[in-house]
UniProtKB/TrEMBL annotation, chain A:
The lineage of its organism: Eukaryota, Fungi, Dikarya, Ascomycota, Pezizomycotina. This is Ribosomal RNA-processing protein 43. SUPFAM superfamilies: Ribonuclease PH domain 2-like (SSF55666), Ribosomal protein S5 domain 2-like (SSF54211). It comes from Penicillium olsonii. Gene3D superfamilies: GHMP Kinase, N-terminal domain. Belongs to the RNase PH family.
From TrEMBL, chain B:
Residues 41-206 form the Exoribonuclease phosphorolytic domain. Pfam families: RNase_PH. This is Exoribonuclease phosphorolytic domain-containing protein. Gene3D superfamilies: GHMP Kinase, N-terminal domain (3.30.230.70). GO terms for cellular component: cytoplasmic exosome (RNase complex); nuclear exosome (RNase complex); nucleolus. InterPro entries: ExoRNase_PH_dom1 (IPR001247), PNPase/RNase_PH_dom_sf (IPR027408), Ribosomal_Su5_D2-typ_SF (IPR020568), RNase_PH (IPR050080). Belongs to the RNase PH family. It is found in: Cytoplasm; Nucleus. It comes from the Eukaryota. GO terms for biological process: nuclear mRNA surveillance; poly(A)-dependent snoRNA 3'-end processing; rRNA catabolic process; rRNA processing; U4 snRNA 3'-end processing. Keywords: Cytoplasm, Exosome, Nucleus, RNA-binding, rRNA processing. GO terms for molecular function: RNA binding. Residues 1-37 are annotated as: Disordered.
Length: 387, 316
C-alpha cells in the first residue's frame, strides 16, 4: 500500500467532464454558458448550444397511422408526440337535451346569418356543449424516468389535456359545420313523392316542410401519446394536434331513413378534409435567473415607478429568456410563458398568452416574445405545409 | 362512472361509423388481401434503438406493410384500410433502486407494461389497460426473464414499457367473427414486443444470456370450405390475409443457446399438411416454424444492437 502511494503521488484530479458537472451543478453550469467571461470572445449560448431565442429542430410527418382519420408525428428536438384523430358519430337521439336546445338554436340560426363573428361564437357553443372535441394526452408511455406507466394520468398530463381542449375551444379551430350531418327530409307534398311512396308508412308530422335537420355530429377523439419527453411537451403536443387535424379526412355520411341510422361512404373521393380556422402556433419560453436562491427570499414587488427610478441594475437580477426549453432547462426555471399566435393577412394575432411562476418578465419582454413567436409561426407554417 | 382524470366524450356515448359498402358486401367490391409472400418468407422488420434519449434504453419496431396495405397507401381508394402493420415503441428505465417500501429481492425485479394507443386498432381502445394488455405484459415478462441475468442487480428494478402505436388485425375486416376466431393479432404483437424489448434492454446495457427474439407460425386454411381443406404451415402470418387461422404459436427464442423462454400456442393444431417423410407431429412443426421465424427476426435484432453499441462507443 505504502509503496504504491509513494510511487504515484496521487493528486486528486478536480477536472470533471462537462456531463458530470452538468449533473452536479446544473444551475452553475447553465449560468456559466450563458454568461461567458467578458475577456473571452465566446458568445452567450445555452448549454445545448442554442442561442436564447432559438428553437430546436422540428420535424412533422402526417398520415402514417392506418386506423386513424388523421394522424401526425411531431418531433421537437428530442421530444416526440404522436397524435391520432378518430371520428365517431354522435346521434342527436343520444343527446339528452337535444330536442330542447334545438328549439332555441333555431332562433339563433336565423340570427347567425348576419355576421361571421357571431357564427364563430355559435360554433364554439355547439362544439363545447356537445363535447365534440375530446383531446387526451398520455404521458405514461415510459417517455421520462419519473413517470410510472399504468398509473392514472399525472397532474401534468391532466393539465396538458385540459389546456389543449381549452385552446381548441378558444381558437375555434374546428368549424362546427364540418362536424354536422344534415338530413333533408323528403317533401311529402310533392306529387312525385306521393307516387313513389305509395303504400309506405308516412309520418304525418313530417308534412310540415322540407326543413333540413341535423341528424348526427362527428366527435373527434384526439389522442396524443408523448413518446419521448425532453421538455416543452405542450408545443410538441399542440403542433401534433394541429398537424393531425389538418390531415383529418371525414367520410361522407348521410341519414339512412330506412335503417334509421347514419351510413358512411368509404370512397376516398367523397371524403372531405376539415377546414380549420387559422393556424394557431404555440411557443413556450422560460426565464432563467442568475441567482438560483432568489425564489426563496421574501420579495417586496417594487412598483413600476420605483423600478424606473432604480434602473435595471439594482432592482432586478440578470436573467435570460430561453425559447423552447429542453428538459434540463425546464428543471432550472421557475417562470414560464406560453404564447399562441396566428397570422391573419400578414398581421400577427395573439390568441393566448400565459405567464406564470414569477414576476421577472415584464411587458417589454412579452412584446419581444410575441415577435419571436411570430417568427416561429412562419417557421412552423413551412414545416406543417410540407408534412 | 366517467373517468374524471381524463376528458370524456359526449355523455350519451358515440358510435363508430358504419360503412354503406359493408352492408352490401355481397357485391364483392372489397377484395380480401392476399398473401404475396412464400409460406416461409418473413416480413421485413425496421428496428432502431436509442430514439428516446431520456430512457436508459429504447427501441422502435415496425413491420413491413403487407402488399395490399402498401398498394392502398400509394393509391388510396377506400377509407377502410385492408390491413395494418405493427408499430411499437419500447422504453427501458433502470436498473434503479427499488422503493424503500418494496420487499428485499436478491434479483432484478422486472416489470412490463404493454399499452395500446387508443387509435392502435380498428376498434377504439380505452385509456385504461384491459385484460388482454395485462396478459400480453405477463407473457412478455416470462419471455424476457429467462434471458436477463437477474442476479447481477440485487435490490433493483427494471421497468419496460411498450406503447403499441399500431396493432395487427385479428381477422380480415370484412369477416364476421366465427368459431375459429381468437385474437390472432395479439400473437404478432407479442412477437414484435419481444424483439423490440430485447433491443431496448441491450440498448440499456443490461446483461443478458443472449438476444431473445419473437417469432410466429400458424396453421392456416385459405379455401372457403374449411372442413375439407388441409391447413398449411406458414411463418409470420398477417391474419388479415387469411380466411381462417386454425392454430398459431409464438415463441421467444435465444439462438446462441438454442433455448425457448416463452411459448404460447393457441387453437387446434391436430391436423396439418406436412411434407412426405416428415414424421413430426403438427404442433412440433408449428413450434419449429415459430423458431425459424424468431431466427429470422434475430438477424435484424443483432444488427440493431450492433448499431446501438457502436453509437455508445462513439459517445464514450
Amino acid at each position: 500500500m505504502a509503496s504504491t502511494a509513494a510511487s504515484a503521488p496521487a493528486v486528486p484530479s478536480l477536472n470533471l467532464p462537462p456531463s458530470q458537472f452538468a449533473r452536479l451543478q446544473p444551475h452553475a453550469y447553465l449560468l456559466a454558458h450563458l454568461s461567458p467571461p467578458s475577456a473571452s470572445t465566446q458568445p452567450s449560448v445555452r448549454a445545448n448550444g442554442r442561442a436564447a431565442s432559438q428553437f430546436r429542430v422540428t420535424s412533422a410527418n402526417a398520415g402514417s397511422l392506418t386506423h386513424t382519420n388523421g394522424s401526425a408525428v411531431v418531433r421537437i428536438g428530442d421530444t416526440a408526440a404522436v397524435c391520432g384523430v378518430r371520428a365517431e358519430l354522435l346521434h342527436t337521439a343520444d343527446i339528452a337535451s337535444w330536442s330542447v336546445s334545438n328549439a332555441s338554436d333555431e332562433e339563433a340560426d336565423s340570427a347567425t346569418q348576419k355576421g361571421a363573428s357571431q357564427n364563430a361564437d355559435d360554433d364554439r357553443n355547439q362544439v363545447q356543449d356537445l363535447h365534440l372535441l375530446v383531446p387526451n394526452l398520455s404521458l405514461s408511455t415510459g417517455c421520462a424516468p419519473g413517470l410510472t406507466p399504468g398509473a392514472p394520468p399525472s397532474t401534468l398530463a391532466q393539465s396538458l389535456s385540459h389546456e389543449i381542449l381549452s385552446l381548441l375551444h378558444t381558437t375555434n379551430l374546428v368549424k362546427a359545420d364540418d362536424l354536422r350531418i344534415w338530413y333533408q327530409p323528403p317533401n311529402l307534398e310533392s306529387e312525385e313523392f306521393r307516387n313513389a311512396a305509395e303504400g309506405m308508412e308516412v309520418d304525418s308530422e313530417q308534412n310540415g316542410g322540407p326543413e333540413p335537420e341535423i341528424k348526427a355530429f362527428w366527435v373527434l377523439y384526439i389522442d396524443i401519446m408523448i413518446i419521448s419527453w425532453a421538455g416543452n411537451a405542450f408545443d410538441a403536443a399542440w403542433s401534433s394536434v394541429l398537424a393531425a387535424l389538418r390531415d383529418t379526412k371525414l367520410p361522407k355520411a348521410w341519414w339512412d331513413a330506412d335503417n334509421e341510422t347514419i351510413l358512411c361512404s368509404d370512397d376516398i373521393a367523397d371524403a372531405r378534409k376539415l377546414s380549420l380556422r387559422g393556424l394557431p402556433i404555440s411557443s413556450s419560453f422560460c426565464s432563467f435567473e442568475a441567482d438560483a436562491a432568489a425564489g426563496w427570499r421574501a420579495v417586496v414587488i417594487p412598483s413600476p415607478e420605483e423600478l424606473k427610478s432604480q434602473g435595471q441594475k439594482e432592482g432586478s437580477q440578470q436573467r435570460w429568456i430561453l425559447a423552447d426549453p429542453d428538459g434540463y432547462e425546464e428543471g432550472l426555471c421557475e417562470e414560464r410563458a406560453l404564447i399562441v399566435v396566428d397570422n391573419e393577412d400578414g398581421k400577427t394575432v395573439i390568441l393566448k398568452m400565459d405567464k406564470l411562476g414569477g414576476w421577472g418578465m415584464d411587458s417589454d419582454d412579452l412584446r419581444q416574445l410575441v415577435d419571436v413567436s411570430a417568427e416561429r409561426w412562419q417557421e412552423m407554417k413551412q414545416i406543417l405545409d410540407q408534412c | 362512472m366517467a373517468d374524471r382524470r381524463r376528458i370524456n366524450g359526449p355523455p350519451g356515448g358515440t358510435r363508430p361509423p358504419v360503412y354503406a359498402s359493408l352492408q352490401e358486401s355481397t357485391t364483392g367490391a372489397a377484395q380480401r388481401a392476399q398473401r404475396q409472400r412464400q409460406p416461409a418468407e418473413l416480413r421485413k422488420i425496421f428496428l432502431q434503438t436509442g430514439m428516446i434519449p431520456t430512457a436508459s434504453g429504447s427501441s422502435y419496431l415496425e413491420f413491413e406493410p403487407s402488399a395490399s396495405l402498401a398498394a392502398a397507401r400509394a393509391n388510396p381508394k377506400s377509407l377502410i384500410p385492408p390491413s395494418s402493420a405493427l408499430k411499437v415503441a419500447c422504453t427501458v428505465h433502470g436498473p434503479k433502486p427499488l422503493p424503500r417500501s418494496a420487499a428485499f429481492s436478491p434479483n432484478l425485479v422486472l416489470t412490463t407494461h404493454v399499452k395500446y394507443a387508443p387509435f392502435a386498432a380498428r376498434k377504439r381502445r380505452g385509456h385504461i389497460r384491459d385484460a388482454s394488455e395485462r396478459d400480453l405484459g405477463v407473457h412478455l415478462e416470462t419471455a424476457l426473464r429467462g434471458a436477463i441475468i437477474a442476479e447481477r442487480w440485487p435490490k433493483s428494478g427494471l421497468e419496460i414499457t411498450l406503447t403499441i402505436i399500431e396493432a395487427e388485425d385479428d381477422r380480415w375486416w370484412g369477416d364476421a367473427p366465427d368459431s375459429h376466431d381468437a385474437s390472432w393479432g395479439l400473437m404478432n404483437v407479442l412477437a414484435g414486443c419481444i424483439t423490440a424489448a430485447s433491443a431496448a434492454i441491450a440498448d440499456a446495457h443490461i446483461d443478458c444470456l443472449d438476444l431473445v427474439s419473437g417469432g410466429v407460425a400458424a396453421l392456416v386454411s385459405d379455401e372457403s370450405n374449411s372442413a375439407s381443406s388441409i391447413p398449411r404451415l406458414m411463418l409470420d402470418v398477417d391474419p388479415a390475409e387469411h380466411r381462417s387461422i386454425l392454430s398459431a404459436c409464438v415463441v421467444a427464442y435465444m439462438p446462441a443457446r438454442d433455448e425457448i423462454t416463452e411459448i404460447w400456442l393457441k387453437g387446434d393444431s391436430s391436423r396439418a399438411a406436412l411434407e412426405k417423410g416428415d414424421d413430426r407431429s403438427s404442433h412440433e412443426a408449428l413450434i419449429d416454424g415459430a423458431v425459424d421465424a424468431a431466427r429470422g427476426a434475430n438477424t435484424v435484432l443483432s444488427e440493431a444492437v450492433r448499431e446501438s453499441i457502436t453509437r455508445s462507443i462513439a459517445q464514450a
